[in-house]
Amino acid sequence: VSQMRRCVGSITSNIAEGFSRKTYKDKAQFYSIALGSVTELQNQIQIAFDVGFITIETFKKLDALSTEVHRIINGLIISSKNIIRD
After folding, report:
1. Which of 17, 29, 54, 56 is least buried, going by the fewest C-beta atoms within 10 A?
2. CA distances from 21 to 10, 25, 77, 82 (A)
3. Does 37 have pLDDT greater than 90?
4. Is the pTM of this model over 0.85?
């Protein structure tokens, strides 16, 4: 649970950090770190399910939510590239 909390904190912190950056390269770097943290969280969710800490219903819900966050961050990377020209 503590590892999952750290992942979530890293996701939101890196999105915030990326948002404050002026260049696409800087934004993309922080958004990419956030994507890595989402992937780590997805792995932790899978492990929690595999060892029986969460039910299939909880797993499906968390998996869907984390997949949505992944898509949103990918959208941030793409949209910041289209808006900012280095």
Report:
1. 56
2. 17, 9, 12, 15
3. yes
4. yes
